[in-house]
Amino acid sequence: MVDIVKQPGRLRRAPENFLSEAEIKAVGEGRRDFLRKSFLTAAGAAMAVPMLARASEGDANILQNPEWTTTLGQPVAVRPYGLPSKHESQLVRRESPGLTRVGAASVSFAPLQGMFGIITPSGLHFERHHQGWYDIDPARHRLMINGSEPAFVKQAKVYNMDELMRLPSVSRIHFIECGANTGLEWGNVAVPTVQYTHGMLSCSEFTGVPLKLLLDDCGVDYRKARFVLAEGADGSSMTRTIPMEMVESGEVLVAYGQNGEMLRPENGYPLRLVVPGVQGVSWVKWLRRIEVGDKPYATKDEAVHYIDLLPNGQHRQYTSVQECKSVITTPSGGQALLDKGFYNVSGLAWSGRGRLKQVDVSFDGGINWQAARIEGPVQNKALTRFNIGWVWDGKPAILQSRAIDETAYVQPTYGQLRLVRGTKSIYHNNAIQSWKVDESGEVSNVQVL
Ligand SMILES: Nc1nc2c(c(=O)[nH]1)N[C@H]1C(S)=C(S)[C@@H](COP(=O)(O)O)O[C@H]1N2
Ligand SMILES: [Mo]
């Protein structure tokens, strides 16, 4: 194995200048607790010997009855709406003080390092608000559908929530990723944890009405109206253009359901647009209006924001589809391996162009690759969980994952991405993420070109 850690020029250390010292410490402590717990239960074979040894030394947790075996438990419905265990209180959305915060416009990141499978619990779904969130009264919420010219629709209509919820519904699992996810890594401002590098990512089962059904209901002239403008009810005047082909595919939903219940207020209650595969900004929350038109609208959120600055100084607009990407979530930056031996390396992969085909994992910074186990069923434009067993020999290692989607697109290295995109972008960074494990087992964020 080539020792990539010693190869000059291929490795850069994260400056970790993104959080305050105190915060890095707090986050780190929580995560280490998490790791200890999960590896004790999950790492079966490797942990069996030390556990037996402890029992024979008189482990009080085995020899004495804990209070929960000898007393009455809590009755039902003490908490009419269930909550996580108090022992999991570290696993929360976190805001980064390093990101611009203007009033209520901010981001909270999902704690990917502690999540399993592919569904994001609704209370841990990341949040991105340009002007804060509202808990809108559904009885007063309306959705209007109109044309930029009267001839584009037979009849403009306004729907209330009751009317929308009577229509035929579908339920589908999709990921949502903010276009700015992993944005700080462009400038090699590597941030310490996967929560902050990749946590503007979530995946839910959404329930709602295909937008096509509503447009049909209004009698849209699809030969003339080739674009849709979606508008939110919040003060940010959030508006995005969506090409009509996406709507005609039947994938775009006007959704009210998320993971089996109504949307959470932070995520657009009572109505949001679901635009599978497309960056989060087009998933307009508190959706109040859909206009059909014959050209892209060039609104502020697509002409000025959410554009990609290229090395030649030109701006690229309407780069909406989130390209194929993956990240190892455990172990990841800020966590620590406790001992040599077996670890289940686990992560997430996704593509805005459809289904995942393969995920490869490297333990030596991208020199050798092995196919990871993909946990099926692999779904269209949804997160996919991958796992692979690894025996850590106690030496420095660099863990990477590389996803390939059904179009045969391969997730790029930082070197490949920078060649095309430069370093001045904010949005659409889908490069291969590297986590370095040092001799002490500490895991940190590094970039391999
Ligand atoms: N009305 C409205 N819709 C919005 C936003 C907003 O600020 N207002 N933020 C957008 C952005 S930039 C993203 S990334 C996603 C975030 O969705 P979430 O908060 O449910 O994670 O919502 C999008 N829809
Ligand atoms: Mo976003």
UniProtKB/TrEMBL annotation:
The keyword Oxidoreductase is annotated on this UniProt entry: yes
Domain Oxidoreductase molybdopterin-binding: 133-297
Source organism: Candidatus Accumulibacter proximus
An annotated Gene Ontology molecular function: sulfite dehydrogenase activity
NCBIfam families named among the record's database cross-references: sulfite_DH_soxC
Region forming the signal peptide: none
EC primary class: oxidoreductase
Stored InterPro entries: Ig_E-set, MoCF_OxRdtse_dimer, Mopterin_OxRdtase_euk, OxRdtase_Mopterin-bd_dom, OxRdtase_Mopterin-bd_sf, Sulfite_DH_SoxC, TAT_signal
Domain Moybdenum cofactor oxidoreductase dimerisation: 322-433
Protein name: Sulfite dehydrogenase
GO biological process: sulfur compound metabolic process
Domain of life from the UniProt record: Bacteria
Record-listed E.C. numbers: 1.8.2.1
